């Protein structure tokens, strides 16, 4: 980050305070003369350090739960959907405050809380895509050739449902 940032994060230049964009300060300066572009670049590290692991964790866990629920069906599907609906129905801010009160406040716990709050979205989308895909002709053909359920899921179903999940991932990272 220091390579990309044109100035130090806390470097103050009082005579240069509250300046507009210029060649020296591309986004201008704040009330004590700090370069806004440098501060933006440094703060992005923390934002992405929380957002990317949180959303990737939610994607992986939601994908696993959604594929299991959609492919197996039956009672397991009903239980997982009820749990996911319960998590989605609970207000996210209250869920986050309760989990942080239980786990304690740290950056790792914030990542866990965000992951838990995003899992239902990925699980529901994964489940819906698996339900739509598991009875397609290419899956039936592979099943009739003797492919195991694990092979069907890993080689044929999951690769075909990843594109919509990556779109959801791209929309959730800024959130």
Protein described:
This protein has 175 residues and is mostly helical. Helix content is 71%, strand content 0%. The chain contains six helices and no strands. The chain has helices at residues 36-72, 74-89, 92-103, 107-133, 137-144, 149-172. The longest helix has 37 residues, at 36-72. The radius of gyration is 23 Å and the shape is elongated. The relative contact order is 0.12.
What share of the residues does DSSP label as strand, in percent? under 5%
Would you identify the regions where 5 or more consecutive residues have pLDDT less than 50?
Answer: none
> Based on DSSP secondary structure assignment, what is the total number of beta strands?
0
Q: What is the 3D form?
A: elongated
Distance between the termini: 23 Å
Taking the sheet with the most strands, its summary is:
none
Average pLDDT number:
89
The radius of gyration over CA amounts to 23 Å
Helix content: over 70%
Structural class of the secondary elements?
A: mainly alpha
Tally of helical runs: 6
Order of helices and strands: HHHHHH
Compile the SSE list and pairings:
Layout: H1 36-72, H2 74-89, H3 92-103, H4 107-133, H5 137-144, H6 149-172
């Amino acid at each position: 980050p220091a390579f990309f940032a044109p100035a130090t994060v806390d470097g103050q230049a009082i005579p240069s305070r509250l300046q507009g964009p210029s060649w020296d300060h591309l986004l201008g300066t704040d009330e004590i003369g700090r370069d806004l572009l440098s501060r933006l670049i440094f703060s992005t590290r923390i934002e992405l350090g929380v957002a990317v692991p949180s959303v990737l964790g939610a994607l992986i866990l939601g994908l696993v739960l959604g594929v299991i629920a959609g492919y197996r069906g039956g009672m397991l599907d009903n239980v997982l959907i009820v749990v996911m609906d319960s998590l989605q129905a609970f207000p996210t801010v209250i869920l986050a405050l309760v989990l942080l009160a239980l786990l304690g406040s740290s950056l790792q716990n914030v990542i866990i809380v965000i992951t838990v709050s995003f899992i239902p979205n990925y699980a529901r989308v994964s489940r819906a895509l698996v339900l739509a895909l598991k009875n397609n002709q290419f899956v039936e053909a592979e099943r009739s050739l003797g492919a195991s359920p694990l092979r069907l899921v890993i080689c044929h179903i999951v690769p075909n449902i990843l594109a919509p999940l990556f779109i959801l991932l791209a929309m959730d990272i800024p959130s």
